[in-house]
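Students often ask why we bother predicting the structure of a whole assembly rather than each chain alone. The short answer is interfaces. A chain on its own may look different once its partners are present, and contacts between molecules only exist in the joint model. In this exercise we take two input lines together and write out one structure for the complete complex. Read the inputs first and try to guess which parts will touch.
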Amino acid sequence: MNHWIIAPVVLPALLAPLIGYIMRHDITLARAASVTGTLLFAGIAVGLAMLASLDGTAQVYRLGDWAAPFGIVLVLDRLSALMVLLTAILALIVLIHAIATEWDAKGRHFHALFQFQLMGIAGAFLTGDVFNLFVFFEILLIASYGLMIHGGGKERMQAGLQYVVLNLAGSTLFLFALGTLYASTGTLNMADLALRMSEMPLEDAAIVRVAAMLLMIVFAVKAALFPVQFWLPGTYSNAPAPVAALFAIMTKVGAYAILRVHTLIFGPGVPATEGMPESWLFAAAIVTIAIGALGVLGTRRLMPLIAFSVIGSMGTLMLAISAFSPQGTTAALYYLIHSTFAGAVLFLIADLVVTRRGGDKLTPQPPITENGLFAALFFAGAIAMAGMPPLSGFLGKLLVLDALRNPADIIWAWPAILAGSLVTIVGFARAGSVLFWKSTAMQPAAPTSDVEDDTPAPKPPNHPRAMALAPSFAALAILAGLAIFAGPVTTYVGQTSAQLFDRQGYVDAVLNSPLNAAPNTKVIKGHGDSYGDDDAHIEGHEDTGDRAADEPATEDGGH
Amino acid sequence: MEMLVASAIGMLTAGGVYLILRLRAFPVILGLALLSYAVNVFIFASGRLATNMAPILQDGVESYTDPLPQALVLTAIVISFGMTAVLVMVSLGAYLERESDEINVPDPDRDLDEERNEAEAGQ
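Now the answer. The structure tokens for the assembled complex follow.
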């Protein structure tokens, strides 16, 4: 048992109260602590990613050293390590942007909430127990409520209220799904659920199917999938821009949960739910792409435009996931990394543009200072999001198209993705030309007349320019890097999806018993004092790299 | 007893959904509270209904009730309680900012429409 696995959860959990209570009056100290904490978080994430790809088996962290179906476990496999690493890099970019543009000083407790947010996201990626997944969802949500209304203001409070209500309703649905699942299977451990589901006779499958679809709706709310995508434009466009950029990973939490739960537990080959998640997800993803593309074309403000493009990218991602095949998942994971950074960088660039313009209306206004620089940045971000070469969006969409070559899929999926991309390009091109080109045709006049009533008049930003631009450039560099190193990255995500589809391996790692083992092993484990023996027998399966936890376990096992 | 518990869950859920659909802050808070009560009872019942049975292993006891849903429901109660408190604060903040307790976000383009109408009227 390697204790570093729980570090991404423990570190922000310890840091956040420190920032919230001790450093609440000193923004400089809070910034320093938050950046240091996020850097450490990123370091741990890199270490975990290396650990996960070291020997290719899932590593299990048993909380309190209780054996798997009884205690709660965290599971580190390539997928969860990849997602935590993605979170860490995005968090660093967003945090530096928030500090450089002084968003974090517009309200209180930004950094404490930010760390709690990281804790919840990391926990959701690492957990191996569905009820624990619910708990981490609540942690990341309650932090996101605070971040969402950070800075206040009429529109934002209103959008925040809608966001809170929607997610509370979603959480209730999550609990209903978990209750249904527990009532029909008697367990909430993911590996144990996978085991029970594969053995479930067809005549008992009805209730489990309900649970599977309820869970899918819950995750679809997070992932902004049709028909529960309606909350996203209002939320993202009214959230503080760095928070909206961080929320790029929150939709991916939903995608990850669908990928994990509906592959591992209700996955392909499970007779009880055979084919059901796939077909629903496929149809929903197609409609989501259409909504995203039409929204990009139809909206008349910059922030909702980006929010709709995020919806479109989630549709493409879900389309790849809905194949539930190793190849589809490889494409989905590559596109997931890409779309996280593409969505985030667009929000960051839009933030810089909107502060300079004084509003996000897509109407011609006198040009902002350094119009060309921001036009170039927006152009690059739009290229990435729309999926044009040379950035990684093109390769991502190509991989997705390639994965969906099954004749039944091709007639819906290809036109949806290609037409969606075209419409998105048109929408972004129109927005960019209004923002940056039509503006240059106007006389530079006093900009006060067009300023929105409910937002304070824009002050010329007085923060250091390089610091404010660096995060956007870093994110664009990552997108370019994703395209340049597409070979190694696809190899890595290919191994990740291969491991994800090795359900037997996951179950073995968590429960230490093959799928076909005698079912009475669990009965033996049920007696209180025998779990020490289990641990002794676990050691044989585990790799080395675990020092501290070995000793008590072997002592226990030696009686 | 099954009938009683099932109908109680059903009525709480129906009332909760109805109140949420009112789309005003106060009824929605009450509706979400009702829904969370419903789901708490639901989770509690997911371990099967049993009366007068021990949850923890004891000598000489033959039949047990499932202790896990009780632990789950405790977690769910704590979380929903905290979330309701957050919701009340956020809705109070939104109400004080806007003097309106509607849940839905207004159409983001409405002031653009107003501007255009004004411009057309001006011409």
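Check your guess against this: The first helix of chain B runs from residue 2 to 20.
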